[in-house]
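Archive transcription. Copying these from loose printouts into the bound notebook so they stop getting lost. Printout 1 of 2:
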Amino acid sequence: MVYLDNAGTTALRAEALNAMMEFMSENYANPSSIYRGAGYAKAAVDAAREKVAAAISAARPNEIFFTGSGSEAVNWAIKGIALEHGGRGRHIITTAVEHHASLYAAKSLEKQGFDITFLPCDEFGMVHAEQVADAIRPDTILVSVMMANNEVGTIMPIAEIGALLAELNAQRGNEKRIYFFTDAIQAVGHIPVDVTALGVDLLAISGHKVYGPKGVGALYAKRGVKMTPLIHGGGQERGRRGGTENVAGIVGMGAAIELAMAEMDALSENHRKMRDALIAEILTKIPHSRLNGHPTRRLPGNVNITFEFIEGEGILLLLDSKGFSASSGSACTSGSLDPSHVLLAMGLPHEMAHGSLRLSFGKDTQKSELDKLLEVLPEIVSRLRAMSPLYSG
């Protein structure tokens, strides 16, 4: 089986699993206790916190808060700021192409009386800093823009938006500041991420997107950012996120993200070469196909193609029968029959939005595997088009 759905999840790497095993067996103490074994567990959590902070160039490890998933981190950032600062403003700006964790968090706040502006994107899935500037109001308290799109791979101009907000906040003052959050779950470990250079106050990460375990994520919250806890309980995570720490998961995430950062530059360069070659081959060999997302400003290992006149579900099933695992979009909505909200926001009609294929590379993806894909994909598309009432030949 050739696995090409690494944007959906990645394999738990052996080094991360090995690091986790100790804390799943003999060293299983609760890090909040005061005996010796607990101190050892707490030290392991703190070491992982330092590794996550280093991956995004955070100034202080205590700006990293571990969560149960990337989705929790996203929800905490958006809802936590809204609930904490809703007394001075109830306007939030986000985009129409966010991951559903962000979109649904925003829509849940909408039901609570917050006013949400969903910025449209251009044909490449890009939202521009000028759009954010035009949407800001006196009662705006949060801007939420993902760093890299999970479906089409487009990388957003986060640094430009951050600079815009920094200048505006200097004029508005701290009491009226606008907080800036980015969902960087698809970006961290794949492209450089520096929270200071980006100008963000909050940033979400997920362990299982960087060859770590599922069930663990992290939220970067810049020092001084006040936000309401999403999960109440004990005094874990410095009193801001209740629940006994998932020590093994946190250790595994720390080990995985450290290795991902060490390998990132070389792996990303290799992925870009394979990505560009694969896109060119598909568009040349298969007529009525189009690239989705920005042609150059995109994640190194993301290829998203729409094939007209057919549905992505059929492509996936036939690829699976040939030994290829791929996706038609977000793994979180793979069971849905609805077309991608990202592709619809980019202007694709419903019938074309149904015919997308997302191929996302991992650290073990080989060019020879992509060559094999190119041997079977044109035949699969031709076969499905022959059965399609939309295709005239």
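Printout 2 of 2:
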Amino acid sequence: MALKEGEPAPEFELDGNDGKKHSLSEFKGRYLVLYFYPKDNTPGCSIEADNFNKRLDEIRALNAEVVGVSKDDLKSHDKFKEKYNLRFLLLSDPESKVIKAYGAYGNRGAFGFGTLRKTFIIDPNGNIAKIYNKVQPIKHAQEVIDFLKSVNR
């Protein structure tokens, strides 16, 4: 069953590239831009991460934090983070449990089944405020900022 805007976001606990476990509940009180992406260091994923990174101060000024999730392991995340000087958290979901719980797993056409590029903005109370099912990596950071500005008036 697909998640819907307005309902509680699924809880999670995943390992982060900072060596700690992270859960949804630690982000209560601010917005969480939880974005799912197929693979570290691939063209679209690199563009999306780099754009979020370049706009991170603006996003944080809107009471939000960015967190990326893929099935890549922490070693891969470390290389990805270092290559692009990423300043936000990357979580590893090697078994795709959280990816599937958020409906971010499915048919990727020529690439077969795997992680879909999807973003969930979770409000300060832990509810899904916005779902982006079709993400264009180059424009996505701006879409997220526009949405955060609309709810932070």
